[in-house]
Amino acid sequence: MAWNLPAFVVLVSQGSGNPTDQPLYDRLWGSGFLPSRYQGVKFRSKGDPVLYLSDPPGIDAAARREMLDDLKQLNQLNLKEYGDPEIATRISQYELAFRMQSSVPELIDISQEDAQTLESYGPEVTKPGSYAYNCLLARRMAERGVRFVQLFHRGWDQHVFLPKQIAGQCRDTDQPTAALIADLKQRGLLDDTLVIWGGEFGRTVYCQGTLTMEDYGRDHHPRCFTAWLAGAGVKSGLSFGQTDDFSYNVAENGVHVHDFHATILHLLGIDHTRLTFKFQGRDYRLTDVHGKVVKELLA
Predict the structure, then answer these.
(1) CA gyration radius for the chain?
(2) Cα 115 vs. chain centroid, distance in angstroms?
(3) Confidence of residue 135 (pLDDT cuts 50, 70, 90)
(4) How does strand 7-13 pair with strand 149-153?
């Protein structure tokens, strides 16, 4: 069965916890070989969630709308003459910016959420930029028709001090993640929302570092690791795939990243073998020339 999803929520746990890596991480949100009109909008954790969300002094919504209409006509003349897709991107981005100015302030205002809902997400839910706050925003975005939401939680690169740090990460994420799924389900949104938790690699089962009770860690391990899915079209209560006795290699039912993407696209109602985009003279698939749908994961 293929599903046409109005929302697609991704929970991602990435490796590095170094704040100075932030400019490097900005590359992770690029649109790849797709035009930049498909580029996501990054919400900031402090101040306005989106830069220039507020109009400058002396400019109201009506004046802004009139200015954008005139600018759109000029851009359409250029688009007709040059056929540059980046001009079309510019037009759509201006329109998106106007819609965001109209809708984002209401989106981030959680004052009308009832106390029971806020309590379910944990004590940090009212703290902008926290993982709990972002989980609540993800639900609010999903019910407002946002098609794709990614939550990015750093700090999992625990080569040292793992005992203390992993406990903190679990406190940050466990309760809000469970609350998000329960909240989506309670509101009837989980049937057509796919929730994914994953990262870019796993961790070794063996330790590194000084190897004291308080100070040890684990290294990067790309051979095998775990992701989980919930919601639209996914079979619940299923554990798929096994490692060897040392958790070093995949022993059974390994899911390659291309298979994973093919399955996600299937759940979105898309045949990954037919979805292509022409770039530099070649038709590209998002799964390249690989991937198969893992039907065992489908409800």
Answers:
(1) 22
(2) 27
(3) very high
(4) parallel
